[in-house]
Amino acid sequence: MSKFATTTSLVIVESPAKCKKIEEYLGPGYKCLASFGHLRQLKSLKHLDIANNFKPTFEVVDDAKKQKHVDFLRKEIAKADEVILASDDDREGEAIAWHICDLFGLPIETTKRIVFHEITENAIQSAIAHPKTIDMKKVNSQIARQVLDLLVGYNVSPMLWKFISKTSENSLSAGRCQTPALKLVYENQQEIDGSPAQKVYNTTGYFTNKNIAFDLNRQFDNETAMSEFLEESANFSHAYSRTDVKRVFKQPPEPLTTSRIQQLASNELHISPKETMRCCQTLYEAGYITYMRTDSKKYSSDFLEDVKKYIVHEFSLEKFINPKIDSLSNANTNENKKEVTKPKKTTTSKKTSNVPPPQEAHEAIRPTKLAVKNVPDEMSAREKKLYKMIWETTLESCMAPAEYFSFTSTISTDIDGIKYTLNSELLDFLGWKIIKNKETKTAIKDKEYNYLLQLRQGQIINYKKITAKVTLKNNKMHYTEAKLVQLLEDNGIGRPSTFSTLIDKIQERGYVKKDDIPGKQVACKDFELEDEALTETNTTREFGAEKNKLVIQPLGIIVMEFLNKNFEEMFNYDYTKNMEDDLDKIGRGEKVWYKLCEDCLKEINKCCEKLIDEKKCEIKIDDKHFYIIGKHGPVIKKIDDTESGKKNNVSFLPVKEGLDMKKLEQGEYKLEDLIAPAKQYQIHLGTYKAEPLFLKKGKYGLYATWGQNSKSLSCFGNRPMENVALADVLEVLERTDAQSSSPSESGIIRIITNNINIRKGKYGDYVFYKTPKMSKPSFLKLDGFEGDYKTCTIKTMTDWLKTTYGV
């Protein structure tokens, strides 16, 4: 070999969107390719050798594209001088790295494994300069998780098909974490149904010549008691008192974990957990934020030093820096002290030879560069909003508490224990709240504060008026997606990285629907006392209206009640949490992975043995009509009489949505109240191949139509139409295109960036280019490109496109 020859290091990541930046940061001698996620799968129970410690047999994912990609990677690995595995730094990523070694015959003990938590030049170079090897404890934990999910899904789900219904595509399913997630929504509905709201009165007194509102500390629950209190109030001596003024500190928000960013985005930006994680993935791959799957509430010491400088520069006072900011550093965490297995020493480029070691511990989600307040316009509107929220929350978390002067005022009544109260605050120092300027000094509030401060203790205060209005107490509400995320975390169900998938899955299965709940009209008698005269006002108000809440569907209730009855031990919250804890122990090498699988299978078998006497689930309406779960969801089974000796005719009638399952089970519905009128369901999703694309629901479930074409969407099972997005349908249609043998169809050959990919066309391969701002894509010829555009580096391709087409 010539002394001028260079070695080629092949870096393998999970997502192709990272490749371009990584190649730029590492320079010549490095090539970056993607695995496109998992290469292999554990397909079914047949692929588990249970008698041999649950030994799994993995197969390449059953997809033509994946098979071709495996062949492509095999050739590239064979050509490379060394392979560096750079899958994500979590159990799933560790398993992907192991699968690559196992599939392509790479030595597990010596193949380089690098980790980084942000896609920046320093992070990438540092990771390359300080490689380690695959952590088999993490791999075993992930294998155990896969086997457990397989055992539960493939043993329990068929029980649903047998005793409830074998629906389209066997869409009824139970899951190790999916079912406890459904159980949370089910139990919430039980509480709503079993705890009717109570009418009570909220009473507000307006006192002093400033007409300042004070709230009464007692809620009356009937009209008589309320009116008597107000009549007596006309003659009460209302004496004023207050507490001493004290300084109050309002703490900044905590750093963003995976769970918290999903909750915050749902509550503040109205973005679903699933969409939040997708946006975070894009921002991470573009180098704008750190890794988004984390439960850490700490930052790197280097980042905290940058924050301190930024705060002083922006606000000119060190007082704005959180006095406990150093406690946010992950420099001293146990994770950062762990020993790292070092591979054999290898040669590194000059570019990376003197780089300090990478930060081992995960960080909270944060911007990679504080100077970048906003991401460029090429990012989507949601990605821009989410980045702004991340940037603001990160900075706020590092800043000093907001400071207030505060005291509580009290106005007595002549009845012991009943009084009016008001908490007054005066802003003294904005602290972290300066970022959004949420708190500003208002003249009215400041005057009110100073006025109450000057009143004498024991001074008699006259009321201007006292109002009492009806409200509902203990009016339980349905969960938002953000609330469900919080409950999943509180109960130890799954991991934060899986929360969005769990919430999406129970909706996809048709168990739960995100819906608006209409309020109830309540007759109210309100009171007002003014100038010793008591007046009554009869009115009607709406209570309990909710928007975008998770509502359990009849199918979800039937499935959950079956599983509660027959598999209660498997799906209670403690069992699920303990299993997650055991998976963590496996990841630390404290437990043998297949022992956990043995315990789980024993529990499944014990539950299944009880099902011998179980009957098929159906609810009798009358002698000829039964409510059942049909192939495509709930229906009324109708049995028509025939001549003696002949088999009865059976037909199926559509069912109305929003039925009360308790009323149904107790026979409180008439048949005509259950049957829905026949109608054609249709939603216009967008455009496909220059034709309007419609989502429709017919006799055999969901399907898509465009022009004269149609495609069954039975793969969506019982998913409500409202939960099917344009992207979901396009994925199915494009997958069908890719599998088509017709030369007129096109498929993606290689993804270059988020906006650029190479496709197969009728007249040869071409470049497909479209940014979010472009209404139509551009189709660019590959004529004149020297080299193999299927295997060249990402940088080579992007440089050529920029020179040739200016993109």
TrEMBL record:
User: What are its GO biological-process terms?
Assistant: DNA topological change
SMART domains per record: TOP1Ac, TOP1Bc, TOPRIM
Cross-referenced SUPFAM superfamilies, in alphabetical order?
Prokaryotic type I DNA topoisomerase (SSF56712)
**What GO MF terms are annotated?**
DNA binding; DNA topoisomerase type I (single strand cut, ATP-independent) activity
Which PROSITE patterns does the annotation name?
A: TOPO_IA_1, TOPO_IA_2, TOPRIM
Q: Where is this region: Disordered?
A: 327-362
Q: Which reaction does it catalyse?
A: ATP-independent breakage of single-stranded DNA, followed by passage and rejoining
Q: Where would I find the Topo IA-type catalytic domain in this sequence?
A: 135-612
The cross-references to Pfam families, in alphabetical order and at most eight, read: Topoisom_bac (PF01131), Toprim (PF01751)
What EC numbers are recorded for this enzyme?
A: 5.6.2.1
Q: Which UniProt keywords apply?
A: DNA-binding, Isomerase, Topoisomerase
Leader peptide range in chain numbering = none
Toprim domain: residues covered: 8-119
Q: What class of enzyme is it?
A: isomerase
The record ties this protein, via PANTHER family, to: DNA TOPOISOMERASE, DNA TOPOISOMERASE, TYPE IA, CORE
Give the similarity note. Answer: Belongs to the type IA topoisomerase family.
Question: What is the name attached to this protein's record?
Answer: DNA topoisomerase
Q: Which organism is it from?
A: viral metagenome
